[in-house]
Structures are given as C-alpha cells and as structure tokens.
Amino acid sequence: MLPAGGKVRITQALGGSYTVLTEAGYMVRIDAKDVDALGLAPAALQEAAPQEFSEELVWDLLRTVYDPEIPVNVVDLGLIYECKISPFEDGNRIDIKMTMTAPGCGMADVLKADIQRRLAALPKVKGLQVDVVFDPPWHPARMSEAARLQLGLDLDSAAFPVYR
Hints:
Elements: E1 8-14, E2 17-22, E3 27-31, H1 55-62, E4 80-88, E5 91-98, H2 108-120, E6 125-132, H3 145-151
Parallel strand pairs: 5-6
Antiparallel strand pairs: 1-2, 2-3, 4-5
C-alpha cells in the first residue's frame, strides 16, 4: 500500500502497468486500473475484437508482461521455460513454467499473477497453471537477441553460452 500524498518516481511504464520507487526506496508495481492513485488519468479502454484462441495469441499476451525492474518482457528475457497448451473441458488448458532472473526475486508472485490474469481472460481457457521454477537457473544467454541489444549486452561475448 502506498500512503496517500506520498511521493513516488515512475521508473517504468510498460505492458499496462507502472513501476514506481517510493521515497523510502521501495519498488512498487501499480496496475493500469489503479493509475489514478498516481494522479494520472486512466487510458481509454480499447474494445478489441474477440480473437480466436491460438498459441500465437498466448505468446503475444505473454510479451505484454514486463519485469518491473527491467524494461524487457518476460518472453524476451527468457523467463518462460515452457508454455504447453492442451485440450481441456471444451476449451484449452495452459501450463506455464517460468523462472526469475534471481531465486530471491521479490517479483515472482507479481509476474505470476499478471500472467494468470492476462491468460485467464483469453477465449476458451478452461484451465491455467503458472509455476515458478529455478531449475535450470536463469542465465543472460536465455534472452533474445533483441533484449540483449536493448540492454546493451555484448552479443558476441563468450560469457553468454547458449543453452539448448
């Protein structure tokens, strides 16, 4: 909870959420529906045409989830280890295995809940499980080339072996 009248600094506004830093140095994630707490006007809700369920749609939605501390989405960061879609009760079940950049990351529950909220809203999703795992451990080599370029990491470095 942020106290009313407290000052915060917006450090990131991506994927429909805001990351703010409080005067005490705490990092807090604010969902777009609560943006008025920051003194900002909520963005107009866009009525999107219903889309047919597809694996591509699932991955597109996963790309709208951003790590609150790093301006890169969870797919390009390499945090999604597995996305399994299977038939389930006249619809689909989605099972996600994901990780964090560090085992002690305090944002695991936040990212997990964001993924669950977004995917549960998809048409014909009748089952959904998101598990945070730490084996194998995350490594910068899991990032997409675009993410490494965005973060200024050396793509040719031997420090980034590619895991298969």
